Amino acid sequence: MTARTHARRLLPGLALLAGVTVVARTLGTRLAHLSPLIVAIAVGAFVANTVGVPDWATPGVSRHKLLLETGIVLLGARLTVEELVTTGPLVVGLAAGAVVVGVFFMETVAGRLLDVDGRTTSLLAAGASICGVSAVVAVAGSIDVDEADITYAVATILLFDAVTLVVFPALGSVLSITGKQFGIWAGLSLFSTGPTAAVGFAMSETAGRWATVTKLVRNSFIGLLAIAYAVRYTAGTDDSTGPTELWNRFPKFLLGFLAVIVIVNAVSLPSSTVAAIDVTGDWLFALAFAGLGFELDLDSLGAAGMRPVALVVAHLATVGTLSLAAVMTLL
Questions:
Q1: pTM for the full model?
Q2: pLDDT at 82
Q3: Which of 104, 286, 311, 331 sits at a 20 to 30 Å CA gap from 62?
Q4: Are residues 196 and 70 in contact, defined by beta-carbon separation less than 8 angstroms?
Q5: How far apart are CA 197 and CA 195, in angstroms?
Q6: pLDDT (tens digit, 9 = 90+) per residue, 170-225?
């Protein structure tokens, strides 16, 4: 198959994703505090569960994973040395603690008590503890899970992204904490970067700035967690113990993510270039989430039960409470 023929097969599905993305971004700008990314997956799921995905669109729609991985690579442009330095050692330590506690709680306590499948628990632990859907996809590439498990984990994370967009500002309005404290608390507790920033700026500019920076510090642990899960799930197996298999399962796009961080911090890019990278990344995430929505089978989600949802509720309540206590005590 020639490159031109391959492109022709992909274009109809990519055009469908683009159409869904435009609708989602339009609705997102008109609905207050609702992330276009959440709308994108909702619109995609609505179309998939009503009229279905036509055969001519399937090749292009199926490329949503590549779009998401490319978006993750570009996310590295948002992590700068200056941002990490200005947060201070305390915030970096709090972010590391939130990740460790979140993953440990999910894997050793909540997951076992609720009897959730181990790999599903790992996906949810990554998504809730690091950076939402991006971490789910990164870890999924490390532990070789089914598409259905990925889609369910993504849907669960995005569900709570939507819930926290309402709950956290309401809590912030009744808590006696400063904008900086609220922002760091949100950055330590919430799942995805977009909703975290939205929640912070819904309170104040100071809260939004600290929420975003703290969240980006948490995001930086995505590579370490993906490698840790890759080692965990390949160690002790008969056919997957060697370094070759470990390398095959390693999500290669994370190397691009790290390379972008190095380049951005080594070379002074024009602000217009950084802004263009951010816009491109936002569009790639929206296109990818629309594609994930097309793979969201509501019947399958219903059959999976509510235990994974309960797992995420337990994580959010535990990490959110501990983070709030730490922020109010130390800041």
A1: 0.65
A2: 66
A3: 311
A4: no
A5: 5
A6: 898 898 899 999 999 999 999 987 788 878 887 887 888 788 778 878 887 887 88
Q: How far apart are CA 215 and CA 161, in angstroms?
A: 14
Residue with tokens 């969201």: 296
Tokens of 139: 């870890």
Q: Which residues of 307-326 are buried (b: 16+ CB within 10 A; e: fewer)?
A: bbbebbbbbbebbbebbbeb
- Summarize the chain as % helix, strand, coil (round to 5): 85, 0, 15
Q: How many CA atoms lie within 13 Å of 18's alpha carbon, on the beta-carbon side?
A: 8
- The secondary structure of residue 62, as a DSSP letter, is T
In Å, how far are 104, 113, 232 from 150, measured between CA atoms? 20, 22, 18
Q: Are 153 and 120 in contact (CB under 8 A)?
A: yes
DSSP string, 133-179: HHHHHHHHHHHT--HHHHHHHHHHHHHHHHHHHHHHHHHHHHS---H
Rounded CA separation 97/221 (Å): 11
Q: Contact at 8 Å (CB) between 67 and 208?
A: no
CB atoms within 10 A of CB 92: 16
Give the total residue count for the chain: 331
pLDDT at 304: 54
Q: Residues 310-322: what's their mean pLDDT?
A: 91
| pLDDT for res 241 | 44
Domain ranges in the chain are 9-330
Cα gap 311→318, rounded to integer Å? 11
Q: Which residue has the tokens 């990344």?
A: 281
Please, are residues 217 and 184 in contact by the beta-carbon 8 Å criterion?
A: no
